Amino acid sequence: MEENKKTKIYKIIMLIVLVSFITFLITSIGMYQYFTNNNKGKYLISSSKGNEVSTEIDKYKAIIDKYFLGEINEEKLKEGAIKGYIDGLDDPYTEYISKEDMQDYMDDTNGNFVGIGIYMVKDTQADKILILSPIKDSPAEKAGILPGDLIVSVNDEQYSAEDMSVVANKIKGEIGSTVKLEILRGTETKQFELTRENIKVNPVEGRVIEKDIGYIEFNSFDQGTSEDFKNKYEELKNKGIKSLIIDLRNNGGGIVDEALKIADYITDKNSILLYEVDKNNNEKVEKSKEDSIINIPIVILTNENTASSSEILAGALKDLGKAKIVGTKTYGKGVIQQLLTLPDGSGLKITSEKYLTPNKTEINKIGIEPDEKVELPNTVQNVLRVEEKDDTQLQKAIEMCK
């Protein structure tokens, strides 16, 4: 009798286990099929802390529903909660991009937008938005805005470092409309009223100097920059250049692949150009894929506003012995972001890897030291508009090319 009872209990337990396993299996297959069929090319974000965060938000939602006097926009509340959660990472390069702003962001990446023409980054130390550089011939440059300027307010509204996405949207607008900026330069505050224009971000410019020295300059690495660079080099090559100066001063970076393609033009096939390291210390090695097409002496110009992809190019060519660097130490942005498109159309630009040069040199918050340190004269007021006779960095590069 006792034995039959034990057998019965055992069978019941096994039945429960079997049903649980089958339920888990069916649920797993169903969820896999659902996400495979409905979320191709999209990223799903989950978090082990999700329930804890949701519980905390629900507490505040209950208080708001009970006491708040006014209209409640659930969509704005949700967006604000997500933005606040992301801002809590305290990373100047990670940001939430709303569905409405994604198209503008993609336009910027592709090299065209309407605005005043500035590259910006969060300056968490000053709690302000730092202007890395104005774009050449843009309304900002023509008005006298300089690298290192800090944005205090836009249209009389003050903003902090965490408001960079908001500021970017405030600065953009219709062609011909105006925007007011209050800028902090050192201890001096300046006011600007600028007219928005259609900005072409990435002109690759070049010329021949000193008879046979080529000079190429561009402000960022956007879609097509590497091809424009190649075409400009071919144009200069046909004019008989025997050496090349690449001016990366005030170049705030951009698309990493564009920098790697330019490095590929200059380095031997299968040369290591970059190490990308993720949070689990997994390494991805980027190598040159083609035989080099540029085989002349190269000098790269850098300054404190040379950042991100510019540092990737400069660091690779320096470590591989393909170029000498002249100027001052670079900015020190040695982390890489990727843009994730979420199922609702919004985006998350998130810092996902750090990069190391071919010699595995750390760049982030350190920068790249030049081979020849050369400062500009104190008399230079605008680093974007330096006359050639006063440009000591360029003169040193020309001397080295000779």
Shape category: globular
Number of separate helices: 10
CATH homologous superfamily annotation of the largest domain: 2-enoyl-CoA Hydratase, Chain A, domain 1
Radius of gyration: 27 Å
Counting helices, strands and paired strands, the structural category is: alpha+beta
Number of domains: 2
Task: Kindly report the CATH topology of the largest domain.
Answer: 2-enoyl-CoA Hydratase, Chain A, domain 1
Q: Summarize the biggest pleated sheet.
A: 6 strands, antiparallel
Q: Please tell me the overall pLDDT.
A: 85
pLDDT < 50 runs, ≥5 residues: 1-48
Give the tally of β-strands: 19
Helix content: 25-40%
**Named CATH architecture of the largest domain:** Alpha-Beta Complex
Q: What topology does this entry show?
A:
Elements: H1 2-38, H2 50-67, H3 74-87, E1 95-97, H4 99-110, E2 112-115, E3 118-123, E4 128-134, H5 139-143, E5 150-154, E6 157-158, H6 164-171, E7 178-185, E8 188-195, E9 197-200, E10 205-209, E11 213-217, H7 225-237, E12 243-247, H8 256-266, E13 272-277, E14 283-287, E15 298-302, H9 309-319, E16 324-327, E17 335-341, E18 347-356, E19 372-373, H10 392-401
Parallel strand pairs: 11-12, 12-15, 15-16, 16-19
Antiparallel strand pairs: 1-18, 2-9, 3-4, 4-5, 5-6, 5-7, 7-8, 10-11, 13-14, 13-18, 17-18
Helix pairs in contact: 7-8, 8-9
